[in-house]
Automatic annotation (TrEMBL):
Keyword Zinc-finger found: no
Domain HTH tetR-type: 2-62
Keywords, in A-Z order: DNA-binding, Repressor
Record has Cell membrane as a keyword: no
Coiled coil: none
Protein name: HTH tetR-type domain-containing protein
Length: 278
């Protein structure tokens, strides 16, 4: 993305927060960013597309920061999971996401409402996938229930803390919610109690995205299991592979060289090959 387009997005973002999405006109954005109408429509087909681009930029920032937190750590590390949930909320706050969402609801625009709904469901799907990575395949049948429970607990406790003007750190709130969910995990494993089908969120995901996401999740869980079973040298190699596979463009030749030094690597080789060659 070129710097001029970034400047337009930053100007629009500030205006949407200050004036509201509906009250901000394209002309306001032109004046604030110092560009012509022709340049604006060269970058964006509409004000809607501009707002969606801002949302996507915020989501990309969250993804990058979440991935960086896994560097050198296993996917089933609960502390990493807590930190990843926290960083999402921090990024949202930094970007005044709640105010932007309010603007969407006021606008009554069907396209934007659909995007915000997809945003919400995608986050729940991410939590569901991480639940399986953290607690293991055994929780897969209950993973939608667990994701909705954790998301609801965190959101409602944060809203309550704000309402009563208490001072509690985000990681304390999320950590408390995680401990409650751990108790729920133990309970559902004993009782088999299930509310939602575990595939319900998949119906809302683009097929190609879902397919790649599932492959990546299986691969990351396999690496996590091998990290637990291996010695320190093997753990270091596997951590490197995990970090490399999380990169936007994994270096295939580097992965292949490192993989040769990993013990009992046949299944891992197959999973990595499938992931890189889809």
């Amino acid at each position: 993305m070129n710097e001029r387009k970034k400047k337009v997005m930053a100007a629009a973002h500030a205006l949407f927060v200050k004036k509201g999405y509906v009250a901000t006109s394209v002309q306001d954005i032109l004046e604030e960013s110092g560009i012509s109408k022709g340049t604006f429509y060269n970058y964006f087909l509409s004000k809607n597309e501009l707002l969606i681009s801002i949302f996507e930029k915020i989501n990309s920032e969250t993804d990058e920061r979440r991935i960086s937190m896994l560097a050198g750590r296993t996917v089933h590390d609960k502390e990493v999971f807590v930190e990843q949930i926290k960083v999402k909320m921090e990024v949202n706050k930094e970007n005044n996401l709640f105010v932007l969402f309010q603007g969407v609801f006021v606008s009554e625009d069907a396209e934007l409402k659909k995007f915000v709904k997809q945003h919400h469901l995608t986050e729940l799907r991410w939590i569901q996938r991480r639940m399986i990575e953290v607690f293991g395949e055994k929780v897969q049948p209950y993973s939608t229930d667990l994701a909705v429970t954790l998301f609801g607990l965190v959101q409602n406790m944060v809203h309550f803390v704000v309402a009563v003007e208490e001072k509690l750190e985000l990681d304390v709130i999320i950590g408390y919610a995680m401990r409650r969910v751990e108790s729920v995990v133990q309970d559902v494993m004993k009782t088999g109690d299930q509310l939602f089908d575990s595939s319900i969120l998949e119906r809302w995901m683009p097929e190609k995205t879902l397919y790649r996401e599932n492959k990546k999740s299986v691969l990351m869980r396999k690496i996590g299991v091998m990290q637990d079973a291996g010695d320190s040298d093997q753990e270091e190699l596997l951590s490197f592979l995990q970090d490399e596979l999380q990169a936007p463009e994994p270096r295939r030749h580097v992965i292949e060289v490192v993989l040769e030094d990993v013990k009992q690597n046949e299944e891992l080789k197959t999973l990595i090959h499938d992931f890189l060659n889809e």
